[in-house]
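Residues determine shape. Next comes a sample protein:
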Amino acid sequence: MNRDGIIRAGVIGTGFIAIPQMDSIRRIPGIELAAVCDPAPERLKEIKKAYGIERGYTDWRDMVADKDIQVIHNCTPNHLHDKINRAAILAGKHIYAEKPLSLGAARAKSLWQLAMERGVAHGVNHQYRLSGAVQEMRARVMEGEGGRPLYVSGCYLQDSAARHTDYTSRQMPETSPARALADIGVHWADTVTCVMGQPIQAVYAQMYTHYPLRLDTATGREVEINSDDTTFVMVRFEDGTPGTAVFSKCAVGHKNDLVVTVSGEQREYTWRQQNGDRLYIGNRERGNEELLTGSNLVHEAVLPYVTMPAGHAMGWPDVLMHAIESFYQSIRTEQYLTGQVPMPLSMTAGGAMPSSKPA
């Protein structure tokens, strides 16, 4: 933090996720969006003008070396994450990274250890856990309101790769061993471990590649695909609670359909991301409920994430802002997250189960 109390942030990348991250930073009091980086000069010029940013870099190393920047937001393609995150940590910068922290569990663990040694805040953007409805669901599960959890279920479904012509090198790197699992499945895993208050301890998975060859319409070439279009998982939590989920990029009609369900002895709780301000509660002796979350209807601990009355819908950009705001709050209070969030879902399943082609 600077002497004036302002925390200055720099964003590396200007793609899909970088823009809403920039918008979120600008919404948080006491945080300045001070710099942006993009290797394309024209794109960099466009973003600087649109956001009124004075500092712009075409080389991320120059941003990392800027002594006036305290926080780096890493919004680059996955294969660049490790080197940028490592350089930022070594430079003493706090790092807020898009997933994954690194490609591979061992490398990610070494980055986590390095951040701990250097005393910098380090976060990965799993924003869904900061939804007010998810936090309310967690509060009820933790209090035992629904009884002992019997099992957990859910899905994350999209149709962005439902056709064999749905190909870009960025979306489907030819070197990537996992895609549906590593891109969207990990969000389900993070959200459900937050709700359950415990990690996933064991994973069994089957990965499917529905289109072994995809057509790159930009070049006309056929590209061999080595990553999953769909993955089914069975999981076991630390306390023995079982769970199951499906993740797919080939689910026609599903746009960003993340669903988390905890089925307990007395009640069942379901959160659907596409109706993100609602918590669905299943009952046996009376009618089922739909809780429209509002600042007057949730647990006190949830209030930081539900800042509007019920009916004033808070959506995806608000959840992202709350995630980033929580990260900056940890910097201000120097209460950095000191625990490692286990991610066996992608690391174990991706390496343990063979893909099936086609299916």
In short: Residues 339-359 have pLDDT under 50 and may be disordered. The CA atoms of residues 97 and 230 lie 25 Å apart. Residues 128-315+337-356 form a domain with the Dihydrodipicolinate Reductase; domain 2 fold (CATH 3.30.360.10).
